[in-house]
Design brief:
With 72 residues, this protein is mainly α. The chain has 4 helices and no strands. It has a domain of 48 residues.
Length: 72
């Protein structure tokens, strides 16, 4: 599965924001699944995703950064 439109990215950011507000963090398996989608998507949408995530849900953004550091 890949993102093809801006609406897909906006929906993903919204979903991650809801999950983060409910749990206070994002589980690793959720981040891993989203990273798979990001890898299959256009790089310009990837940039938009991270910008929106940092702006709309900084906690989720930090979870992504932390996970990427751990798995690098």
């Amino acid at each position: 599965m890949a993102w093809f439109r801006l609406e897909d990215v906006q929906r993903a950011v919204y979903s991650l924001g809801v999950m983060t507000s409910m749990n206070g963090y994002l589980p690793d398996y959720v981040i891993d699944n989203y990273l798979d989608v990001i890898d299959d998507s256009d790089s310009s949408l990837e940039k938009v995703f991270y910008q929106l995530l940092a702006q709309e849900c900084p906690i989720a953004y930090e979870c992504f950064l932390s996970y990427k550091k751990q798995t690098a």
